[in-house]
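Suppose you are handed a protein chain with no further information: no name, no annotation, nothing but its sequence. What can you learn? This example shows the usual starting point.
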Amino acid sequence: MRCGTLECMTRIAVIGGGQMGEALLAGIIKSGVEPRNIVVAENNSERAEEIGNRYGVLVTDVANAAESSDYVFIAVKPKDVPTVVKPISDVTTNLEKEVVLVSIAAGVPTSFYENLLSAGSPVIRVMPNTPMLVSAGVCAVSAGRYTQPEQLETVSELLAATGTVIEVPESDMDLVTAVSGSGPAYFFLMVESMIEAAVGLGMARQTAAKLAIGTITGSSKMLAETGKSPTELRESVTSPGGTTAAALRAFEDGGFRSVVYDAMEACAEKSAELRPKEPGIG
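A reasonable first move is to predict its three-dimensional structure. Written in structure tokens, the prediction is:
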């Protein structure tokens, strides 16, 4: 019998104990899953001990983690995916229960996993972003060919503890990477640039940082809570011939919009290039 609710699951595995793996682990626990029902695979012994002590979860190898779990989250770099999928495939092929594989590895499509796992294996692809570390992330989710609706619902419920969850067609995933996956870095670069500009114009760095961070934080809150579009909010603070208009004109003259387009295009193209080769292929 298929089961897609948190109450029915016996164990969840997180493969990879890095920054995103830990954020995922913390979110899963926050969603209501008991630490005793979670197992982590991490090959760095110091990091493994740290994760185990901090969250009270069992830390073991990939094969053991996958064999005892219902949902297996892949939280490793794209280049390492083939290495961790092999033992997962080996141990799950002969299991009577169905194991759902959930990947947060950038650029790796569900079809890649489906080709390596036993026929009909359910796979879900997720593109998270780093604000999930503070429970304010955005996770885009896409179901593979064999994933059941209740399985996608369960994964979405788990991820909801880390922020917003949005279902998208898998064909959009490279663009999702360009918008939200890498988006926090664009934001941080903007804040960094504002601080550096203020310092260059004569302001103390500490003051500049407080002003820039406070301004960006408040602006994002307005965008999230007022229901107004970015265009409406921009226009509301831009008086004709005023200071804001002068600043925005400088942005436009510098090709700001085209730079953003080029940056996101480069990100999406890179995401498409990240798919690892299957073992034994070329």
